[in-house]
Structures are given as structure tokens and as C-alpha cells.
Amino acid sequence: MTIKQGMKKPTLNFFKNICAVLSVQHIIIVLVTLLLSSCYTSKGVNYLQSSDQEMTIRLRPTEYGVQPNDVLSVKVQSRDPDQVAYFNNSTVENRNLQANPASLFLTGYTVDKEGSIDLAIVGKVQVQDMTIEEIRDFVQAEIDKFLLNAVVSVKLTSFKVSVLGDVKTPGTTYIYNTQATIFEALSAAGDLNISGKRKNVKLIRQKGDKSIVVDLDLTSPEIIRSPYYFLHPNDVLYVETSKENLFQKNLGVFSLVLSAISTTILVLSFNSN
């Protein structure tokens, strides 16, 4: 097909039409707008925001009641090791045993589906919904029937929480303490990424055969008063990614496309002149 002289190619006409509508200045304005809209403000990322210089907030710690599948460490101590040998798991007493979640699970006392643990000599002990302190006092009273001057210690060795979503190191964390707060769990996960949604962190808590899902606002000081501020074993925290971050991830693609268009317009404008 022969193109008559004076007739312009359709492709060239198309890009020249774009040049008539767009300019490099327009594209620069669009790029600057995209960059500014992708910036994060301190209001969206700071925790416990308040205009007060000093605050006093009363905590509301809740005592955890032991549930089925929890693992307890129960030790009986005495000046005479032979006296307590029958009550203690010999594997637990092995000093060469490395303390890790796997060994604690294997050597501890798992609460069965009826809510009981089976202790040597003492027998079945119903512990469901009892606090660690209540279990210790009960076992101490039972041990006192057999031994004099023995001391019982009880610990929850299966205290773990999972942190998922937009955090630096998502995963499961074991808490070697009697209690832990939501901020301690997030700290163990390396803190939220800058793009994590702090106003809507989801907490999933197992309650019997049901799951409770709660939305928590970490930017408000009121989170400390929440009954969910102190975590329970097997809690799951999920951090959503903010919409601003989704836009920011695509910003590079937008910038690349606009840069290509601006370059094309410059070349065509130069050729047309």
C-alpha cells in the first residue's frame, strides 16, 4: 500500500494528538501529586496518641483460666530429693534437658478434654478454668498430705501467641511469663511495618468451641483499658495493610508508565519541530 505524499501515518497523528492534550508539565504535576498522596503522617502510625503530656490509666488485667490442651509444669521441691522423686517427672529434673517448646510439651502435664491433669500419687486433678495460683494452692494442699515442708510450683508452659499480617517478622511467639500485653507480642514480631493499619488490629481468641474476633485501635490510649489488652494463650493478632500501602506499591508502575509517556511526547514534539 502506497501512502500519498502529504498524508501522515496514523501512529504519528495519534501521538501528536496526545501531545496536544498532555504536556511534560502536566505529567510532572501528576507525579508530584502521586508522591504526596503516598506519604504517611505521624497521626496514622503513632501509638497511644493523646494531647496530654502525662496520663494515668488503670490497668484491667484478667486472670487466665486454664483450658483443655494447655500444658502445665508442676514441680515439687524439698530438701530431700528422694522424697519428691515420686511426684516429679524425672525427665523434667534432668538438667541436661534443653528448655524449648517441644521439650516442655513432652515433659509437661497436658490438660485433657475433661479439663484434668493426672499427677503421680495425687491422681486426677480438675484444673479447667482455674488460675495458675489456684492450681498451685490446690496441689500444695494435696502434697502436704504426703510430705512435710515441700514446695509446689506450677507454671503454664504453653503460653504462645501468633502475630500475622503486616509486621516485620510474622509468626508464633512463646511467652515465658505469667502475662503479656498486645504491645509485647507486637514487639516480639518486630513491630508493625509503616504500612500496617494501627487503627484496626484484629484479635482472635478461642473461647471454648467459639472464636471471638475483636478490632483494636492501637492509636488510642483507651486500648490499655481494654479487657483484651492482656493476651491469653493461643491468641492470634492480625495486622491489615492500609490502603495507602497498596497504592504505594503500585506507585512505581504508575511512575514508570508516565515517565515513558513523557519521554515519547518529548521525542515526538522534537521531531515535529
TrEMBL record:
Membrane disposition: Multi-pass membrane protein
Localization annotation: Cell outer membrane
Record field: transmembrane: 251-270
GO molecular function: polysaccharide transmembrane transporter activity; porin activity
Gene Ontology CC: one annotated term: cell outer membrane
Signal peptide: none
InterPro entries cross-referenced by the UniProt entry: Poly_export (IPR049712), Poly_export_N (IPR003715), SLBB_dom (IPR054765)
UniProt keyword ATP-binding, yes or no: no
Pfam families in alphabetical order: Poly_export, SLBB_2
Record-level GO BP terms: monoatomic ion transport
Primary location class: membrane
Keywords on record: Cell outer membrane, Ion transport, Lipoprotein, Membrane, Palmitate, Polysaccharide transport, Porin, Signal, Sugar transport, Transmembrane, Transmembrane beta strand, Transmembrane helix, Transport
Protein origin, superkingdom: Bacteria
Annotated ranges, domain SLBB: 160-239
Domain (Polysaccharide export protein N-terminal) ranges: 61-156
Stated family: Belongs to the BexD/CtrA/VexA family.
Stated name of the protein: Polysaccharide export protein
Organism: Zobellia amurskyensis
Species classification: Bacteria, Pseudomonadati, Bacteroidota, Flavobacteriia, Flavobacteriales
